[in-house]
Task: structure prediction
Amino acid sequence: MVLGPPGGGKGTLAEHLAEHLGVPHISTGDILRAEVANASALGRRAHHYMTAGQLVPDELVTEISRRRLTAPDALDGWILDGFPRDLNQAESLAAALGRAGPEAVFALEVPDQEVIVRIAGRLTCPRGHVYNAEKDPPRRPGICDIDGEPLGRREDASPAVIEERMAIYKRETTPVLDYYERERLLHRVDGLGERDEIYERVLARLGSS
Ligand code: AMP
Result:
């Protein structure tokens, strides 16, 4: 499981880890964005919370996470990204999965100023691959290296919404880190540096967990 502030690099790390371990990468943010893009009933309910940078209500997110985590391709493991975001979700996850819960929880630590720079430069493709205009640009401007889809900015990347997402992370998600610390599952990882460096830090911890 990967947690971290908005723009902290959890999506990129989760994607790498999932590939390395051969298990699905399950991102509640990606699932919700796909529901919004399809204008499903869930997507229509979730959309305004997401554009405001607020958490989508627990009852919507908890059920989609539970369903996705118990799908056949997730039986041998998963990398969960962006869930749980508050204590209530963490407790629902424990109730739903019991012993099949997370084996390790990685929390990326990134200073606020760096978060702002990263989100402001972030480019994503419709399938969720992430680039940074400054630090990690695609090979062809505006085009995803992996699937050739056009890149765009996320609609929750304006300064006011970034601030709201950071405040919510501190208020709602920090207690989740403490919860997993008490469960002795938490690894706090320095999220500053090159993508590969951060990945190596996590792999080293994974080997010893
Ligand atoms: P992310 O891509 O993880 O930054 O998520 C983008 C947005 O989706 C968040 O700002 C929330 O509005 C919503 N979201 C994603 N995961 C959750 C969650 N576990 N609980 C509530 N809202 C979520």
Q: What stands out?
A: The helical segments are 10-21, 28-37, 41-51, 58-69, 87-97, 112-120, 159-182, 195-208. Strands lie at 2-3, 25-27, 79-81, 105-109, 122-124, 130-132, 186-190.
